[in-house]
Automatic annotation (TrEMBL):
Pfam families: DUF1615. This is DUF1615 domain-containing protein. PROSITE patterns: PROKAR_LIPOPROTEIN. It comes from the Bacteria. Residues 1-19 form the signal peptide.
């Protein structure tokens, strides 16, 4: 194997190993909705499990408690947002403009609750850095390269020599790895490697493995799906992927994930959990807990009611098996149960025969059970050095949200 091939093999594997698990990540294939203006919302206030689903833009919102007062004008909204953002933060005017522009383009209501939800999530994900740094990123990349090279009995020095080839920036690929600071730089590095696949003897069909990035750690897959369902408001200088790694684009797509869907919750913490674990993960986790109680079967509390492979349901999940055991009590066939389970990533699952009958069965003696619960998911990533969970993430963002709301 020549040096160019060694470099190709090592870099592709290393970058795949370092791809950041995305926030907002439970995915199933979903239909893409036609852009529809959002109606006035009803009252109510992201290594995660699996990748993000095809985008669904649902035209009804249910935010934190808001008044029935006349909607704010853009000028009034700008003043409110200015009041709510931290007094001391980098590039305050730029962030304010990007947030307000995203709200306007996504047709999100201008409310303190929504503004604070946005601010809290951005602060948690990037500490108001438009291109957040990743401490020790070169070491993470080289460690992954070394581990992979060792499996193929390739000396690391041979790989490093292969990567001395000059890249389009004028630096060698090795030098760029040695000085990596941010995911945006890492994404640009891999894009250059992909463009030079033939010269570097890289597979021509190699895809960029970096799945998330930007100030809100947005799933690239989500962004690519969203522009098909909702018109992107800005002129793109490059690809959708490139937009994700900008402050403006990352904020826009992040707020779409966080707020542009009807969340059936009475507490904002569950929307934050959904951001990390996937839309409706909190509703689905409560449903899993209920099924576990009814059957006595221990179930994963991750908000995934089905098992997925490459975005498509596959095999039979433990939740599915447990529900089949309840089929007679629910007066439903296995086919009908599966039919409804396939809606688990949409708001409509809460109106299905399966959902209603399962709760009715549990509550027939007058008991009531929660409609939302925090998913129990361990977060794993080369960047994470201590035990973190979706519950930790949601509560941490909630604390920031409450701090923001106190500034009103």
């Amino acid at each position: 194997m020549n040096l160019r091939s060694l470099g190709a093999l090592a870099i592709s594997m290393a970058l795949a190993a370092c791809a950041t698990p995305s926030s907002q990540q439970t995915v199933a294939p979903l239909p893409v909705a036609t852009p529809t203006p959002l109606t006035t919302p009803t009252v109510r206030p992201t290594p995660t499990p699996t990748p993000m689903p095809a985008v669904v833009v649902e035209p009804t919102l249910s935010p934190a408690p808001i008044s029935t007062a006349k909607p704010l004008t853009v000028q009034e909204a700008r003043a409110l947002l200015n009041q709510l953002l931290p007094a001391k933060m980098p590039e305050r005017a730029g962030w304010s403009a990007d947030i307000l522009d995203a709200f306007t383009a996504l047709k999100l209501p201008y409310t303190a609750a929504y503004f604070c939800a946005a601010a809290a999530t951005i602060e948690q994900e990037s500490s108001w850095q438009g291109d957040p740094t990743v401490p020790g990123l070169p070491k993470i990349v080289w460690r992954a390269i070394g581990d992979r090279a060792a499996k193929y009995h390739i000396p690391l020095i041979a790989v490093q020599t292969a990567l001395l080839k000059k890249s389009p920036t004028g630096q060698s690929y090795k030098a760029r790895i040695d000085t990596l600071r941010t995911e945006r730089e890492m994404n640009a590095l891999f894009e250059d490697l992909a463009d030079e696949a033939e010269n570097l003897n890289l597979p021509l069909n190699m895809k960029n493995p970096i799945r998330t990035g930007g100030p809100m750690q947005v799933s690239v897959e989500f962004a690519q799906g969203h522009v098909k369902a909702w018109p992107y408001p800005y002129a793109m200088k490059g690809s959708v992927r490139s937009e994700v790694f900008t402050r403006r684009g990352g904020t826009y797509f992040g707020l779409a994930i966080l707020l542009q869907y009807p969340a059936p919750y009475t507490d904002m913490v569950y929307r934050f959990a959904d951001y990390n674990a996937g839309r409706y993960a909190s509703r689905n986790t409560a449903f899993q807990q209920l099924v576990s109680k009814l059957t006595g079967q221990a179930l994963e509390q991750d908000g995934d009611l089905l098992r997925y492979s490459n975005g498509a349901p596959t095999g039979t999940s433990s939740t599915q098996t447990a529900l089949y055991r309840l089929a007679k009590q629910l007066a439903m066939s296995n086919e009908a149960i599966l039919r409804d389970l396939k809606l688990e990533k949409l708001s409509g699952f809460g109106q299905t025969e399966l959902y209603k009958k399962t709760y009715a069965l549990a509550e027939k003696n007058g008991q009531t059970f929660p409609r939302a619960a925090l998913p129990q998911i361990d977060l794993k990533s080369p960047k994470i050095t201590r035990k973190l969970t979706t519950e930790w993430f949601a509560k941490r963002v909630l604390w920031r949200y409450e701090t923001c709301m106190a500034r009103r």
